[in-house]
Amino acid sequence: MNDGIRRTYNSAEFGSSVGFQAETVHNPTVNINADASPEEKYKVGVRHLENGVPSRARDVFNDVMAHGHDNAEVRFHWVLAMLSARSYHDLGTEDRKRLHQAAGLVKTYAESEWKEALQTAFALLAAVGGAGGETGRVLERLQALPPTRRDAILHHFDLVLTGGLKDSLWAQSRAQAEAERFGNDRVHRVWAYFEPDPIGPRAQEPRPSTGAAARAAFPLQAGVFVLVMAFLYILALAADPAAAVVELLVSLGAGLTAARFGPQWWYEEHRLKAKANELRIPHPGSPAASDGFTNQVRHSFEYYFSHRAPAGFDPRTWLRHTDQVRGALVAEIALLYREKRVGVDRLNWLIRHLAEDTRDRHNSGTLSDQRHRNRTPGTSKVLCVTALVALGVTSVMLLGTVASGGGGGSPFLLALLAGACGVWSGRRAAASWLRARGEERRMAEETREYQEQLAARQAAYDNWKSFLDTTRPTELEMETWLTCDKRLLVDEALRHYQLSWRDLITHTILMTPARPYKRGRVKGGPWRYSRYSFRLFLVTQDGVREIGTEFDFTDAKRENEQRSNYRFDALSSVQVTERTRVGYDLELVLTNGPARNIRVKDADSHQLAPDENAEEIAEINLDSAGFIHTFRLLEGIAADGKGWLERNDPGSLPPFDATD
């Protein structure tokens, strides 16, 4: 439900305030079973790498190789994972040592296309370090690789390749990004990634039957009534047989008529009152209706009802017309789903279905069918009341017949006592009979309604979930689109500043969430956002050029762009603050301006699954945001100033031996 959301921007000094509208965690698409073979684990590691989680891919590949699954294909992806989202300067001594050892193992692998790809990757790394031979020959080998492996190297070596190497490859990378940026129907599918998994359908179950006690009491009450009335008619027959027979026949006819039409009238009257009591909800302004969940359900119903009004109704008129129906549905849904951690966003599919069902029933003329069906025709009520009146008059006449027979006061007193007992037992027997039959009918109707509602809602749920599963982008698609966006942002910045890759020492992109946003992730994966704030840092001999822009991930539109330039000695300090309940903040302090606080990541401990490690997930998110490389870069510049250039000039890289 995105309509009507007010967007707030904080663009001053690349403002870092971050809020969120919705978030969701999908079931994992990448998972490792405890008893998985090394080959199966390797495939999972490849998916982690493709999905933009190189840190986890490195762990998987290390485990796989430790268990003996080591060949050119595994080593190729391990090298990509080692260098993905990292520059060569980011590698520690142990990482470089392992890369050198891996380069020495290449000759032991069997000849294959994977070995050639691995050799080319090491040749590129050697060319960056200054000891790998001619650049032209390396580029020829790279171009000769199959497209998928060549593109993988270009993507994961993005921060490693610099200068002439990057210049030679940039046109191809840019063209590929432009071609893939909106591929696979991005604009019409991204929304589904942030849509929460719907909660399953529920319907109001039938209330337990209360007719057992009535059924148990009815035989005794009916038996007393029959005995008392038999005694009364015996007295009447003794007094005046002819009159007693007529009165008996009239009583039987009136009783049968009341029994025929009375239950329907009684049931519908009580059923309508019970329904009204069940569906009555507090007035929106009352304290009982002001809890958050019920209010959210009510607002969602109002939203979908107003957007699904039948032809000829404007939204406000339709809301007034369906006020009672909508109120009943709000009460039902709030009751069915009132439990911890069930957000209304997971119920919107059901509320939308109910709004559409109400509109369709109105269009077909059946919106009031239930209420009309529950109304008894007037003739039934008239016949039942007439029969009861006749039965009462006949009973009085029966007493008169007994009294007219003479024989003293005892028979008449006995008749009065029998009549009073008959009225009491008959009323109790009739009430028990009506309640027992009514409960049987109610249970049958409610069971049928429950099954019909649940079946309809299950069908709507299956359709919506199937549509979501079909529409929702994969992690690989999300990562591909994000990579294209970053690549084209860099290209635009280079064009704006009229720079080539030969002019750059290095670069980095920090991606943070931009308000307002939705976020989603797969279990074990990084958060992805509907809106980003990109900060691109281009480091040249003259200083740092910074470009910040807010970015809508759905259509790749950018806004609120800002640029700033500063010398190396202008960056005085960089520090990170971790707040458990808030997230990570990066503070960037310049000598000629106020400190800038950048919210790098929001807290997410409440969104973790029980088997997820908070520190591991935090590292994955920071790595995915480009934070680790950005922080090391800015921290080094802030510490060394101009001296940072001497240590980080591409020509100062230690040589890397990549002998074939």
Structural class: alpha+beta
Would you identify the regions where 5 or more consecutive residues have pLDDT less than 50? Answer: 1-21, 281-289
For the secondary structure, the number of strands is 10
Strand order of the largest sheet: 2-5-6-7
Ends apart, CA distance between termini: 58 Å
What percentage of amino acids are in beta strands?
5-15%
Q: What characterizes the major β-sheet?
A: 4 strands, antiparallel
What is the gyration radius calculated from CA atoms?
40 Å
The rough form would be described as elongated
Instruction: Determine the mean pLDDT.
Output: 80
What is the subunit organization of this protein? single chain
Number of helices: 22
The domain tally reads 2
Estimate the helix proportion, in percent.
55-70%
Short key terms for the protein model shown above:
12% strand, four-stranded antiparallel β-sheet, disordered N terminus, 660 residues
Describe it for me?
The radius of gyration is 40 Å and the shape is elongated. Helix 12 crosses helix 14. The strands form 3 sheets. A 4-stranded antiparallel sheet has the order 2-5-6-7. The chain has a 3-stranded mixed sheet with strand order 1-3-4, with no helix packed on it. Strands 8-9-10 form a 3-stranded antiparallel sheet, with helices on one face. The N terminus is likely disordered. The chain has 2 domains: 216 residues, no CATH class; 257 residues, no CATH class. With 660 residues, it is of the alpha+beta class.
